[in-house]
Amino acid sequence: MFENLSERLEGAFKQLKGEGRISEINIASTIKEIRRALVDADVNYKIAKEFTDKVKDKAMGEKVLLAVSPGQQMVKIVQDELAELMGGDVKEIDLSQKPTVILVAGLQGSGKTTFSGKLANFLKTKKGRNPLLVAGDVYRPAAINQLHVLGDQVKVPVYSEPENKDVVSIVNNALAHAKKNGNSVVIIDTAGRLAIDEAMMTEVANVKAAVNPHEILFVVDSMTGQDAVNTAKAFNDRLNFTGVVLTKLDGDTRGGAALSIKYTVDKPIKFVSMGEKLDTLDVFYPDRMAQRILGMGDITTLVERAQAQFDEVEAKKLEKKIRANKFDFEDFKQQLQQIKKMGNIKDLLAMIPGVGKAIKDIDISDDAFKGIEAMINSMTPYERNNPDAIDANRRKRIAKGAGKDISEVNAFMKQFDQMRQMMGQMNKMKGMMPPGMGAKMPFSR
Hints:
With 445 residues, this protein is α/β, with parallel strands linked by helices.
């Protein structure tokens, strides 16, 4: 996501390298390149022009800071303006009503049903709510079954009436069911539709009128770029939705939808969704996205994901073992499993400042740790708890059991030993390690 835009912006900022100050002359080519980069990223020219005019006005009005180069000043200005363009402050979903009714709408194939499952999981696990999913798509084959499968995966009940084709009566019955069973949130998955399809647009408008939803979320496939923005406008004119959801941000997208949809419909982006896994849904933070576009990473989100996965009690136990220099393969395997739960490995690494650019052309599979886990699983419980007891004969047996060459086992053992030595050195440092912070994890070969 945004890789090409990030590179183009970086190139634009380099044009100011070596300049003593920002002037109308030396900023002209930079501004032009930023505008071109935005247009190439599928941002409407009018929006790109207005954006760069604001950047230019701010840059020319900036007081020259002796400790900051013109290029650095320009990066900060563009970062602030990008965040503002995408909405400025974070706008979270409104859950103040009971039950809160959320209507999910959008084009065919935009990912509405998958998002509905992700949202149910998000509200259950992170907000402590008791959601009900409602199958309001009575047209697409297997849509009801898909929602039931997603509901089973996240352990959230699904209300459906497979034989009923009257969506308005289904959602009314679902709302009564939710009130009777104490569901605090009702998520209505509607049929995918085309903005030009009057009958379908009328139907979703009738559903809105029937249940008076507190949130209407319009789901946008980010890969459709400017077309998605135009469709959002058509939907908003009819539904007056409360927020936008950007899906498929992990795909080959130029980013035009994310950058210009807030400007076009004046509605906040509330969620971003990446991949098919049901825990890959994040609240949208404009400032964090601006940092990622500019190659600054997103440490805040990375830390939040880690905090969500690492149990505080277990973290303290692990810290004691590290301080006593008793960190073993069982602990290491547990740490790997926690990291895998945090999301796509490449996406996680891209959140570290400077790493995203370095790995953009490297294929890092979510199975990156599979080889290491195979080696650990081939060890006996005694060997996992006593790494120093693994001699040459044991290593040969481990290699055979894991389907690995002995050289791979030796390399892994060496990496693990180096990591333990590093932990020992950190323990000697003043302050030691803060609770819950694991050591650097090596990648499998």
